């Protein structure tokens, strides 16, 4: 995977991407990263790339031409026109499925806006994907681009070791991760759940699955509606719904009652 980031703050991207797992994957050649400083494509001669918004209002708008030239110069060098992702709160909200589908590309280009945005005409002309990372507003697209590159890179073959890759499988089946514990067995009076010390793989597996279901119910109940649940999962959720296992609120119980009624019909 070759990433290209068009930005006014290339050092922000460089500094953020050269540590830990992603930094090592770049060193090993599984990934590459180049930044393009949009200011280098200023058309006014003085390095200016923004101007006042037509129609008035606060802030400045990034002009179309420098952004256009930066992308065209890159496409010319590459001899192709890779997908161009514009980071914007007005885009489609990024998720794991999008990470998987971006990860098969040879190249991805990210366009990071600043100020009040980018002249719409150049976006119409060259952007292929408008993406947001969530419902909040950032000062610029750089952190959002780094979030996307991190999540996409994990899906690129060779970036994670075998040990690292197994670790996140369970978010991919649509449930939240179960809790993890390490030594010591007792920390400030808190004990590790005894089942984890039992050496009984079947029981450990079942406990972890139940914990994933319980956490998903408490933090992201809507994910349970899409998750693939087998009869053991439904047994556990039934017991939760009846108040026979775990600490479950009346609201969570009635949510489960509806969920189980629906999935039993299906
Ligand atoms: Cl992709 N960009 C900016 N500037 N703010 C955001 C965002 C992106 N996603 C959420 N907030």
Explain the overall architecture.
It is built from twelve helices and nine strands. The chain starts with a strand and ends with a helix. It has 266 residues and is of the alpha/beta class. 6-chloroguanine is lined by residues 87-89, 131-134, 136-138, 140-141, 144. 6-chloroguanine (6GU) binds next to strand 5 and strand 7.
The termini sit apart by 41 Å
Counted up, domains total 2
Question: Strand count, sense and closure of the main sheet?
Answer: 5 strands, parallel
- Beta-strand content: 15-25%
The number of helical segments is 12
- Uncertain parts: none
CATH architectural group of the largest domain: 3-Layer(aba) Sandwich
Envelope shape: elongated
The total count of strands amounts to 9
Q: Mean of residue pLDDT?
A: 95
Hetero groups in this structure are: 6-chloroguanine
Query: What would you give as the CATH superfamily of the largest domain?
Result: SPOUT methyltransferase, trefoil knot domain
Q: Within the CATH hierarchy, at the fold level, what is the topology of the largest domain? A: Alpha/beta knot
Q: How helical, in percent, are the residues?
A: 40-55%
Provide the CATH top-level class of the largest domain. Answer: Alpha Beta
Order of helices and strands: EHHEEEHEHEHEHHHEEHHHH
Order of strands, widest sheet: 2-1-6-5-7
Q: Which class best fits the helix and strand makeup?
A: alpha/beta
Radius of gyration: 24 Å
């Amino acid at each position: 995977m070759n990433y290209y980031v068009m930005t006014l703050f290339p050092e922000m991207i460089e500094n953020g991407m050269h540590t830990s797992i992603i930094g090592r994957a770049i060193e090993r050649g599984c990934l590459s990263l180049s930044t393009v400083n949009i200011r280098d494509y200023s058309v006014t001669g003085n390095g200016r790339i923004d101007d006042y918004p037509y129609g008035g209002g606060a802030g400045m708008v990034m002009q179309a031409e420098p952004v256009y030239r930066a992308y065209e110069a890159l496409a010319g060098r590459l001899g192709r026109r890779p997908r161009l992702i514009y980071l914007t709160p007005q885009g489609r909200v990024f998720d794991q499925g999008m990470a998987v589908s971006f990860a098969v590309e040879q190249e991805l280009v990210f366009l990071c806006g600043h100020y009040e945005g980018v002249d719409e005409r150049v976006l119409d002309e060259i952007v292929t994907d408008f993406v947001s990372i969530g419902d909040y507003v950032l000062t610029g697209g750089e952190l959002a681009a780094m979030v996307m590159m991190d999540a996409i890179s994990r899906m690129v073959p060779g970036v994670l070791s075998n040990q690292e890759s197994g670790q996140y499988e369970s978010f991919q089946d649509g449930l939240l991760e179960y809790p993890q514990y390490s030594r010591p067995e007792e920390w400030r009076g808190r004990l590790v759940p005894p089942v984890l010390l039992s050496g009984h793989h079947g029981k450990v597996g079942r406990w972890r699955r139940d914990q994933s279901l319980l956490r998903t119910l408490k933090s992201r109940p809507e994910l349970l509606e899409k998750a693939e649940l087998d009869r053991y999962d439904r047994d556990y959720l039934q017991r939760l719904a009846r108040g026979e296992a775990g600490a479950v609120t009346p609201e969570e119980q009635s949510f489960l009652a509806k969920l189980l009624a629906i999935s039993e019909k299906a």
